[in-house]
Structures are given as structure tokens and as C-alpha cells.
Amino acid sequence: MLGLPGAGKSTLAEMAERDVEVLSIPGLIQRERLRVRPLRRHRVAMRLLPERLKLRVLTAPTPDAKDAAAFAMDHPDHRDAVIRAGDLVSEPDQREIAVPLLFESWSEYGFAERVRRPGDQVLFHEAILQRTAFLMAVVPPASGAVTDLLDSLPPPDGVVLLDLPLELAIDRVVTRGREFLMTEVMASMSQQIDAIVGRLRSRGVPVAVVRADRPPNQSLPEVNEFLREQLRRADRQGRTPPNDASLGAARPNMNELS
What we know:
By secondary structure, this protein is mainly alpha-helical. The chain is about 60% helix and about 10% strand.
């Protein structure tokens, strides 16, 4: 799921998970707690990572820093574009969260890939596309970093775009008064989300545009139908679609949606 802060991504993702055969990262974590499996180590990934990236990965949040390392090794163009862009962010508050948030998403994608079972379908809402939009919004426009980030985006199987007018999004963020409060970058984020969606559409990624200026239960049927169509499409093809809700590299047995 992709949209401005305040669009209701988390709420709709939780509702969709109850209705459609998809899993969220919290759902995967809960499932894995109920079974024992050997710890998978990514020694090669950690040995090959640049020292600066290795330090950040080792201090990354759960599910697992090694999962972030595995993802970074699989997607070097995206990794390098993110690191270069992060170095260009001038505002300290923005710099402190822009890249670390992406590292957190990398760990979640790596975790989902590591613990997946045949047929698992994973729905992400605060994911790589969303956090790349924020990074794109805070880098200098003339730096070329935005183009690099767009070019290196790992394509998802499908995207639900929650369409919310900027003014209403800002009002919701201010009203709830928690988490994301950088309203000064939301206008730029809106433009970058449009750029991301345009780039993904040009690459053939299905996008469902769903109104987010209404109660979530009124938007839920459209979200559910889009997710079900992606699952039907996978069945018609006789395989799961190319893996990613922002991964990119095709891997069998797992469908991921943003």
C-alpha cells in the first residue's frame, strides 16, 4: 500500500488481512513464534558489505539485521542509490530517519523471504515504496538522487494507491498528533508518490487507485477485490508473480504486494 501519511494504510492493511488470504509482517512474526526453525545466518552477506553499510545493518531493528543484509546484497543498485541519497539530506531530523526507515523495511522484506512458505502472500503498508517516497522528498531536487532512486526501485507485484488530497492528509496527521509530523515535506512526498506510481505503471505493475477520503470500510471492498485479482492472476499463470512489494527479483512461492 502506498499513500500520504494519514491515508489509512495500516488500518486498511489490517482489515484486508482478515478478509483476504494475505499476511502482514506482524502476522508472519506471530506465526514464526509458534514454531522452531534453525537460525539462518548471512555470513557471506555481512563479509561483503561495505563497512558503513555493515554498521548500519548491525544496528538495524528487528526482525533481523541479517535479513536487511541479505536484501541489500540482492539489490545492490537500490542499496547504493539509498546510501548516496541519504548522504545528501541536509536537515538533521530528516537525515536521522530517512535511511534508517528504509533499512527497517529491508529487514522486513528479507525476513519475509527467509520464513516464507509455498503460497504465502505478503501485504506491506509501511514499506520500501512508501519510505523511498519520503527519501525522494527530502533530497536536493537537482542532485540526480531522485532519478537514481526511481531507476533502482525493485518493482512490486501490485500497488494499492490510497488517494488522499494533500490538505486532508495534513489535517489528519496534525489531528492524530503522533508518529509522522513532518508536514512540511508532504507536498513533495505527494509529487514523489506520483512519480513512483508513474514509473511502476510504465513497467507494467498493476496499480489500484482507491479513495482514502472516506471511512476505511467503504474503501475496503476495492482493496480486497484488487488483492484477490492478483491472487487469481497468479493462479492463471500457474505460479506466484515475481516476488515483491518492493523487492524486484523474482523468487518462487511468494507474492508480495505494496
